[in-house]
């Protein structure tokens, strides 16, 4: 069972376009992370957000943690072919199990 | 090496056989995680070790799956009587401390195919 639902599941856009990926849950998370995974490799951490309402920017990527710490979004500005990959949100639940739960994933393809 | 190492990278076996997958974490990392990932989906949690002990094994799907970490470093995931539904990429990750404390570093995974 995956606690975090991501949308869209697939996204194909032209180079230079903007996009937003959403990560939603009914559970509260003490922190939430975003990873990017390329074929044949393990996920690689992009960012960790901890505080409700927090916004972090990493070059053309903007990450936001919801006020209630149940959801997050990833916005990419002026997408480039190098952004192509599987984007995964993952959260540490505030109560209960003490492991990292991953979202369902969003596969992004940026067409040159 | 500096990263998480997993062996074998690929394993093809027949239904009913026994399989072992090995994970060598980053030196000094006390926490070790096993995940299973099907094509195009997010990793599914299996088990988490803190040191030598399994702190959370709630993700193991059934009693055919077992994992050990006897010396608090290398871990082995063991699958008995494999079934076709066990086919997936098995990912191992390690972190310096435990949950809620930062980045997990993943290996490249072991791709298991059960014929």
Number of helices of chain B: 0
Please mark out the parts of chain B with pLDDT under 50 across 5 or more consecutive residues, or reply none: none
Indicate the mean pLDDT of chain B: 93
Helix content of chain B: under 10%
Q: How many beta-strand segments of chain B?
A: 11
Class by SSE composition of chain A: mainly beta
Low-confidence stretches of chain A: none
Span from first to last CA of chain B? 32 Å
Radius of gyration of chain A: 13 Å
Mean pLDDT of chain A: 92
Q: What is the 3D shape of chain A? A: globular
Radius of gyration over C-alpha positions of chain B, nearest whole angstrom: 13 Å
Q: If interface size is counted as residues with C-beta under 8 Å from the partner's C-beta, which chains form the largest one? A: A-B, 27 and 27 residues
Helix and strand sequence of chain A: EEEEEEEEEEE
Describe this structure as you would to a colleague.
The complex is a heterodimer of chains A (112) and B (115). Chain A has strands spanning 5-7, 10-14, 19-24, 29-37, 44-49, 55-58, 61-65, 71-76, 85-93, 100-102, 106-111. With 112 residues, chain A is mainly β. In chain A, a hairpin with a 6-residue loop joins strand 4 (29-37) and strand 5. In chain A, strands 2, 4, 5, 9, 10 and 11 form a six-stranded mixed sheet that branches. A five-stranded antiparallel sheet of chain A has the order 1-3-8-7-6, with no helix packed on it. Chain A is built from no helices and eleven strands. Helix content of chain A is 0%, strand content 55%. By secondary structure, chain B is mainly beta. In chain B, the strands form two sheets. In chain B, strands 2, 4, 5, 6, 9, 10 and 11 form a seven-stranded mixed sheet that branches. In chain B, strands 1-3-8-7 form a four-stranded antiparallel sheet, with no helix packed on it. In chain B, a hairpin with a 6-residue loop joins strand 4 (31-37) and strand 5 (44-50).
């Amino acid at each position: 069972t995956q606690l975090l639902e991501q949308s869209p599941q697939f996204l194909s856009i032209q180079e230079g376009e903007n996009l937003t990926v959403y990560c939603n849950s009914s559970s509260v998370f003490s922190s939430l992370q975003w990873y990017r995974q390329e074929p044949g490799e393990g996920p690689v951490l992009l960012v960790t957000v901890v505080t409700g309402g927090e916004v972090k920017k990493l070059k053309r990527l903007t990450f936001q943690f919801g006020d209630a710490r149940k959801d997050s979004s990833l916005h990419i500005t002026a997408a480039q072919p190098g952004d192509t990959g599987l984007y995964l949100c993952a959260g540490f639940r505030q109560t209960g199990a003490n492991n990292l739960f991953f979202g369902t994933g969003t596969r992004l393809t940026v067409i040159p | 090496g500096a990263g998480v190492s997993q062996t074998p990278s690929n394993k093809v076996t027949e239904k009913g056989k026994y399989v072992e997958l090995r994970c060598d974490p980053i030196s000094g990392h006390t926490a070790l995680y096993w995940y299973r990932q099907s094509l195009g989906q997010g990793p599914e949690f299996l088990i988490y070790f803190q040191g030598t002990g399994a702190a959370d094994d709630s993700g193991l799907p059934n009693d055919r799956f077992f994992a050990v970490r006897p010396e608090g470093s290398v871990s082995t995931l063991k699958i008995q009587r494999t079934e076709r539904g066990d086919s997936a990429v098995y990912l191992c990750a390690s972190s310096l401390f435990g949950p809620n404390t930062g980045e997990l570093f993943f290996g490249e995974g072991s791709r298991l195919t059960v014929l």
